[in-house]
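Good morning,

Attaching, inline, the backbone tokens for the sequence recovery test we're adding to the shared suite. The designed sequence is right after.
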């Protein structure tokens, strides 16, 4: 199977490409919706995971009713994303057109601040204007007269995520992506009139011009307000050597930090699994040599990879065989839409007869087709000390499946925030890249329904919840201080004293 990729809904709509003169007849748009409906009902295994068939049909009817004649590409895209987001699947994503990212470098509608959302609201952590009037620790209140919290909630109605999770959605409106969604869903504007509160809580206002990506980068680097942020980023880069996968061992304290910001890639799952095993074996050797008693596993921002990599990784933290997935199923083995899927046609021809339809209409997979349905065996060099897992809203897909199973098995202490992937499982593995006939908009449709081998959670449709929820302050952000990791180190130090 190919990677269970964690699809972030990166939306980009250029004024020059999707202006009001790009319009379609109502019938053409209705035809696109009919085509999408057929594809979803024939192939999407999680279409009714969080809604009934009647609820989906009602949402579809409301979408059709909202279509008008001579509707713009931008307006229809807003309708489409609202419908798709209602499926509550992080891997079911609508894009405005093929290769839409090409317009990124020429678009000139970017909000000239980098925003980060904390518990206290949205904060400006980088100033990308040429002025030093707005400090980088300011709390943003309104944009063009509208409260930011209202803007965010409107964006969230159009952003795909598993279940009722919002930590992933906040990740998806970080930095430039906030501008993309603002332009596509809120308003197209050349200027932004903002109100904000300074560190003392006093309110101010300012009017700033929209910028291009090139201007945003140049201004961000040159504005002296951003100096602490860049200094902190350079310190972090020097400390980690820019690596996204590494092990750091402190022989004095007996604490090691294993960083996996992503899983290893590869042309095949076998190749990727081999890379992961080689990396983990090397890490375990270093840990054993240093007599490490406490291990921190950092999976923040890990968007996943091949399903089997989480399966392999779990073997380094268990002492007996365990299940990883409870079940996997599809809802078709012969839909014509499979010709648009990531599954090679020869594979479909060979494996389709092995998928037998059940009375409930599903086509379950077995261990012969998917080895990850078997038991995970403990590795001979598995870690036997105390483990602390760091996770956040960027921990998704195959990485979130791992954290869910590890959490359910009680393999360690979880610190950070709710993961972006659903605790009980999501939809993924292989995908259909559907192109709508008239608008050429693209919809990514997953083909496999996952049920993780986990205990039933207290709250349906949420990610893995941390034992210790740790947030940042705006000062931590603008100085690049890793508050969550430091919390874990303090937690370990306190436990060592007991």
């Amino acid at each position: 199977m190919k990677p269970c990729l964690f699809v972030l809904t990166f939306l980009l709509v250029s004024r020059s490409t999707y202006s009001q003169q790009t319009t379609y007849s109502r019938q053409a748009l209705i035809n696109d919706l009919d085509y999408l409906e057929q594809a979803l009902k024939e192939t999407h295994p999680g279409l009714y995971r969080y809604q009934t068939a009647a609820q989906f049909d009602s949402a579809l009817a409301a979408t059709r009713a909202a279509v008008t004649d001579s509707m713009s590409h931008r307006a229809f895209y807003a309708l489409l994303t609202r419908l798709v987001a209602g499926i509550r699947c992080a891997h079911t994503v609508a894009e405005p057109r093929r290769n839409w990212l090409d317009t990124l470098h020429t678009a000139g509608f970017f909000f000239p601040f980098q925003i980060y959302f904390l518990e206290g609201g949205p904060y400006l952590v980088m100033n990308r204007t040429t002025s030093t009037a707005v400090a980088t620790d300011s709390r943003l209140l309104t944009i063009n007269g509208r409260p930011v919290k209202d803007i965010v909630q409107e964006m969230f109605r159009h952003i795909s995520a598993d279940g009722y999770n919002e930590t992933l959605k906040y990740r998806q409106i970080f930095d430039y992506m906030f501008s993309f969604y603002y332009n596509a869903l809120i308003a197209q504007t050349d200027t932004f009139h903002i109100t904000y509160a300074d560190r003392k809580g006093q309110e101010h206002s300012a009017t700033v011009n929209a910028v291009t990506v090139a201007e945003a980068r140049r201004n961000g680097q040159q504005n002296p307000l951003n100096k602490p942020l860049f200094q902190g980023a350079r310190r972090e880069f020097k400390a980690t050597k820019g690596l996204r996968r590494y092990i750091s061992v402190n022989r004095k304290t007996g604490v090691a930090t294993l960083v996996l910001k992503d899983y290893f890639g590869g042309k095949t799952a076998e190749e990727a699994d081999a890379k992961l095993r080689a990396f983990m074996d090397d890490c375990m050797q270093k840990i054993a040599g240093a007599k490490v008693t406490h291990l921190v596993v950092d999976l923040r921002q890990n968007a996943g990879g091949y399903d089997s990599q989480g399966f392999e990784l779990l073997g380094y933290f268990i002492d007996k065989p365990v299940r990883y997935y409870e079940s996997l199923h599809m809802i078709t083995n012969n839909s014509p839409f499979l010709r648009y899927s990531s599954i090679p046609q020869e594979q479909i021809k060979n494996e389709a007869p092995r998928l037998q339809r059940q009375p409930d209409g599903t086509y379950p997979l077995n261990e012969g087709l998917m080895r990850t349905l078997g038991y995970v065996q403990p590795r001979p060099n598995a870690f036997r000390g105390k483990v602390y897992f760091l996770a956040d809203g960027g921990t998704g897909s195959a990485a979130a499946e791992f954290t869910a199973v590890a959490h359910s098995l009680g393999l360690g202490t979880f610190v950070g925030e709710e993961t972006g992937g659903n605790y009980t499982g999501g939809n993924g593995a292989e995908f259909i890249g559907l192109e709508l006939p008239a608008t050429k908009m693209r919809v990514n449709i997953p083909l496999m329904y996952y049920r993780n081998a986990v205990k039933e959670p207290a709250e349906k449709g949420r990610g893995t919840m941390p034992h210790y929820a740790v947030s940042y302050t705006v000062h931590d952000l603008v100085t690049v201080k890793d508050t969550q990791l430091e919390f874990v180190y303090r937690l370990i130090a306190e436990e060592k004293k007991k």
